[in-house]
Specification:
about 130 residues; mainly alpha; three-stranded antiparallel beta sheet
Length: about 130
């Protein structure tokens, strides 16, 4: 989809992760697939599904007796939007600043460094 992806809360993100693994699913299937540590009551999950539907992040198939839900955006699209939002909020929209900080703060293995070099080399070749 080319529309701007709405802001997705952390709780809504958990519901979406279940739908990205398998869709469509009923509310009960989603509830049983959520990690046990969420400890959410079924009503909470249904509220999250309703919010995601109103935001037009998920679709609802109402043709059956039991409604089924499916994502309208891929996980990759949502991750990209969340990353852009994060970079804008915390790094003034400058990806380079974020990358430099992470690379300086993280212990990178030789394999990590080789992989990062390969990604940068491929990016440079495409431009």
């Amino acid at each position: 989809m080319t529309n701007k992806i709405p802001t997705i809360s952390e709780s809504e993100w958990e519901v979406l992760k279940v739908l990205w693994q398998k869709a469509p699913q009923t509310a009960n299937e989603i509830i049983s697939s959520l990690p046990a540590e969420t400890n959410w009551k079924p009503k909470t999950v249904r509220t999250l599904l309703d919010r995601l539907s109103k935001k037009e992040v998920i679709g609802v198939n109402k043709d059956q007796r039991v409604y089924t839900f499916y994502p309208l955006y891929s996980q990759n699209e949502c991750q990209r939007a969340k990353t852009e939002s994060f970079v804008k909020r915390f790094y003034d929209g400058t990806l380079k600043s974020m990358l430099v900080q992470f690379m300086q703060d993280e212990d990178l293995s030789e394999d990590d460094i080789k992989e990062l070099r390969a990604i940068l080399d491929n990016k440079q070749k495409k431009e």
